[in-house]
Amino acid sequence: MKTILAPNYVHHTHDVVILWFQVSNKYLVLNDHIYTLLDCFLQSKDYSHFHQLINTGEPISGEVSGVLFSEIESLLTSVHSIDPEENKVSEVSVLDSEFPFISIFYNFNGVIIQVCYQSENEQRLIHPQFSYLEIEAPQINADCVFHISSSNHLLHLFKSNHFLESYSTQAYHLLQGKFAIELLCTLTQTKESDWLASFHASTISNNSEAVMLIGESGKGKSTLSAILMDYGFNLLTDDLSPMLAKTQQIHHFPSAISIKKNAFSLIDSLSERIKYRTFQSPNSHKGLLKYVTPVNSDIKPLPCSKIVLVNYEADSEASLDTLPIEEALNALIPDSWISPHPEHVRIFMDWLDSCSFYKLTYSETDAVISKFETLLRPAQ
Amino acid sequence: MNKDSSKNQITRNEALKRMGKYAALTAVGTFLILSPKKAHAQSVPLDPGGNPFE
């Protein structure tokens, strides 16, 4: 038995086998045939035993079994290798409380959050997403205070005057992500370890169930979210969809939808229901972004069992097709944070059993709404 | 993604000759190695490498 190379978790779902390796937090998605060979490899004492184990049906030559043996060994070794953590900065920063920060208050459904930015550069990283919630400085203390400062090409994040992490200025999306999860924990009175995942997805709901929109940046997730919101669906969250481990429900996250320049005219064509503010992109070389205010009649957490890969294609006819789980996982996992806690991995895999996967291609508003309505009916 | 080459009309030995690192395995079917992100992050810019402070 080659137990040292064995996966920590094996899960059969949707005609594939998913293996998980704790040391590297990597997932290996296989078909049944490869899994059978891999299982024989793990059970074998050595090459000749492996050759014997796989020769139960149609004869397999020594040459082929030898290649398979070395390839499986190489594959299992590679899924155990730990990738270096990119943009990891170990520098600790100290908060200069005397510095004249730009202080902005936000009202998150009754929870008052104060964010103190060292300059307009730091403000541009966070403020546009929440500007629709900005309020005058209240008479009472904020429920939580964040500080964002920078020095020597590094950004520093503080919560309640405690240092959290530093990031290189080029990795500002990591600071945004950390701020988002810390804000979420404050708003929901949870700990980071309570969360199963923060999926790179927008989530649309009808007050009883949610549908997750996944896909690469630039493939039309945010634009589709605005279209569906205009039609009457709720926007539970845009860009980052947090799932709580205990309930496997997607929680509301109150950031505005950021819309890039190529979708400005489409956003302008929507009804007056859709309101937006325009800001300079966090990266000033990239021009303006429009931040669409979320419209929700209900923000309670909801279960989600439909995952849609969004694919905007100019001049295409709208289509909605079922998607193989491999393609869905290939879009979802590498772009998301998924808790590496073994119990959370088990819950994640079990949740996949309940999911169905689709690919939605669109270019035109009415046609895509009609396709989406076959998955989710608007709230009555 | 490694494509299922069994759909192509080639034998396993031919596949062995043609394919790369995991030639024999990919002749048997598909597999994917997927790593989740190590930290929470918002959308990575479409053309990363720009510095918001420069």
Describe the protein.
The complex is a heterodimer of chains A (380) and B (54). Chain A has helices spanning 32-43, 47-54, 62-80, 120-130, 172-188, 221-231, 264-268, 325-332, 342-353, 365-372; strands at 9-13, 16-21, 26-30, 102-108, 111-117, 134-135, 144-151, 154-159, 162-168, 195-199, 202-205, 210-214, 234-237, 241-244, 249-250, 257-259, 276-280, 288-292, 302-312, 319-322, 337-338, 356-362. Chain A is an alpha+beta fold. Chain A folds into three domains: 3-80, no CATH class; 102-189, no CATH class; 195-372, 3-Layer(aba) Sandwich (Rossmann fold), CATH 3.40.50. In chain A, strands 11, 12, 13, 15, 19, 20 and 22 form a seven-stranded mixed sheet that branches. In chain A, strand 17 and strand 18 form a beta hairpin. The longest helix of chain A has 19 residues, at 62-80. In chain A, 39% of the residues are buried. The model of chain A has no long low-confidence stretch (mean pLDDT 92). With 54 residues, chain B is α+β, with helices and mostly antiparallel strands. Chain B has helices spanning 12-18, 23-28, and one strand at 31-34. The longest helix of chain B is centred in the N-terminal third of the chain and has 7 residues, at 12-18. The two termini of chain B are 37 Å apart. The model of chain B is unreliable at 1-9 (pLDDT under 50). Chains A and B meet through strand 3, helix 1, helix 3, helix 4 and helix 5 of A and helix 1, helix 2 and strand 1 of B.
